[in-house]
Design a protein that fits this description.
The complex is a heterodimer of chains A (about 350) and B (about 80). Chain A has about 350 residues and is α/β, with parallel strands linked by helices. Chain A contains 11 helices and 14 strands. In chain A, the strands form 4 sheets. Chain A has a 5-stranded mixed β-sheet, with helices on both faces. Chain B is globular. The chains are: A alpha/beta (about 350), B mainly alpha (about 80). Chains A and B meet through helix 8 of A and helix 2 of B. The structure holds coenzyme A (COA).
């Protein structure tokens, strides 16, 4: 008879690692070209500084440092890793993947390795897949990573999103567990809002524009950068995502007051505050606010925020955290996890 | 049943107080949300969504920038109730 994998009942996050761009960029540093101010940015977004890559720092470097930290903390050796899933929109080439390069860098010889593109929800997708691979018996140890260098895709004169973005990577090492550690993930999308967070043009258009001689057709074509319709995204991110968060809690059988922490994607402090209000989180639930000094690092933001939360509040270890990611696509993902 | 303009104003004032802590009786028809009540564009969004909920109307993103004064909002909501 055909042999199939031996399933495992539970998985959990064993450890997390983090690495941020080493350059702290202040609001004053970027306010000029967008005719903004430190006060405006702090009040509307909660950002004080954003972490950005210094010269020579790449997304894979952040991913390497974050992964090595997670591996060391978990106390396993890199060759025990069966799969590496990197959520990213920052791989400089369509192929080969960032994850295969990472596997070689960290010595995870022979591991299954692939990238996923789910923008700011990417890490929650990666965690869902890691959980599924482990419970299905296809893997024992899986690295789920969010890694970004968004500073490659920003326009300093753009007021819609560039000033929010930062660079870094967060990694979670996920493995088998005797007790439940990751709830059933809620993953979804709304492709009808494909144009709410978008690139100014494609790389192909950029190439073609560079190759044509007539200026008139191509004056608008520049290196592609990210834009968003801030108001529409804000409304979706708070009120639609509050429904998803509530559903994730319900499916997990967890009441808001049973949570130790709430770790939403770090898009804007005002989104986070309003979100917490909508969820009616009691005041003892610690809310991740890494955005203040890291900025929005897309797929990296939840694991980075988790890492910081555990550094600042080691007592949260073993507690339940609701994490939710949402972003371009539009896409979203949420699950309740036991903090390592 | 459609609410009167007075009832909409009272309901809206409650929302504003709830979202921003501004005293309910400061929310008067001639007041500008930004200049007089010091409500920023993001708090305005939370007020808009709460108003949609409370009054059962749809206030599109493009419409929000036209709601400069409290009267603008009351008028929009009153007529949108149909
Ligand atoms: C981007 C965001 C901060 C903009 O704030 P906003 O309140 O929607 O801004 P608006 O476009 O309504 O503009 C309001 C005012 O601020 C000004 N403004 C807009 N962007 C500005 C900026 N970056 N700096 C200074 N002023 C700005 C506008 O000109 C406008 O001024 P006016 O009232 O005098 O015309 C906000 O929409 C947001 O955070 N959205 C969610 C974004 C998000 O998190 N996306 C990522 C999901 S992965």
């Amino acid at each position: 008879m055909l042999k199939t994998p031996e399933p495992t009942t539970f998985s959990r996050i064993l450890s997390v690692g983090a690495s941020r761009g080493s350059k702290a960029v202040t609001n004053d540093d970027i306010a000029g070209p967008i005719d903004s101010s430190d006060e405006w940015i702090r009040q509307r977004t909660g950002l004080i500084t954003r972490a950005r890559a210094a010269e020579g720092e790449e997304a894979v470097d952040f991913a390497t440092a974050a992964s090595l930290e997670a591996i060391e903390k978990a106390g396993i050796s890199p060759d025990q890793i069966d799969a590496i899933i990197v959520a990213t929109i920052s791989n400089p080439v369509p192929t080969p993947s960032l994850s295969t390069l990472l596997s070689a860098r960290i010595g995870a010889v022979g591991a299954a390795a692939y990238d996923i593109s789910a923008a700011c929800a990417g890490y929650t997708y990666a965690v869902a897949q890691a959980d599924a691979l482990i419970r299905a018996g296809l893997a024992k140890y899986v690295l789920a990573i969010g890694a970004e260098k968004l500073s490659e895709w920003i326009d300093p004169t753009d007021r819609s999103i560039s000033f929010l973005l930062g660079d870094g990577a967060g990694a979670a090492l996920i493995g088998p567990s005797d007790t439940p550690g990751i709830s059933k993930s809620i993953l979804g999308s709304d492709g009808s809002a494909w144009d709410k967070i978008y690139m100014t043009n494609t790389l192909f258009e950029y190439r073609d524009a560079k190759n044509t001689t007539s200026d008139s057709d191509t004056a608008e074509i520049n290196w592609p950068t990210i834009r968003q319709e801030g108001q529409a995204v804000f409304r979706w991110a708070v009120w639609e995502m509050a429904k998803v968060a509530k559903e994730a809690l319900e499916i997990a059988g967890v009441k808001p007051e049973e949570l130790s922490a709430f770790i939403p994607h770090q898009a804007n402090m005002r989104i986070i505050d309003e979100f917490a209000k909508q969820l009616k989180l009691p005041s003892n639930v610690v809310i991740a606010k890494d955005i203040e000094t890291t900025g929005n690092t897309s797929a990296a933001s939840i694991p980075l925020a988790t890492h910081r939360l555990l550094e600042e509040h080691p007592e949260l270890s073993g507690g339940l955290a609701l994490q939710i990611g949402f972003g371009a696509g539009l896409v979203y993902g949420a699950q309740v996890v036991v903090l390592p | 049943m459609a609410l009167s303009a007075d009832q909409v104003l009272a309901g809206l004032a409650e929302i504003v107080t709830d979202e921003t802590g501004i005293a309910t009786d400061a929310v008067q028809l001639d007041k500008s949300f930004t200049d007089d009540l010091d409500i920023d564009s993001i708090s305005m969004m939370t007020i808009v969504v709460a108003a949609e909920d409370k009054f059962g109307v749809k206030i599109p993103d493009d419409e929000v920038k036209n709601l400069v004064t409290v009267a603008d909002a009351v008028n929009f909501i009153t007529s949108a109730q149909g």
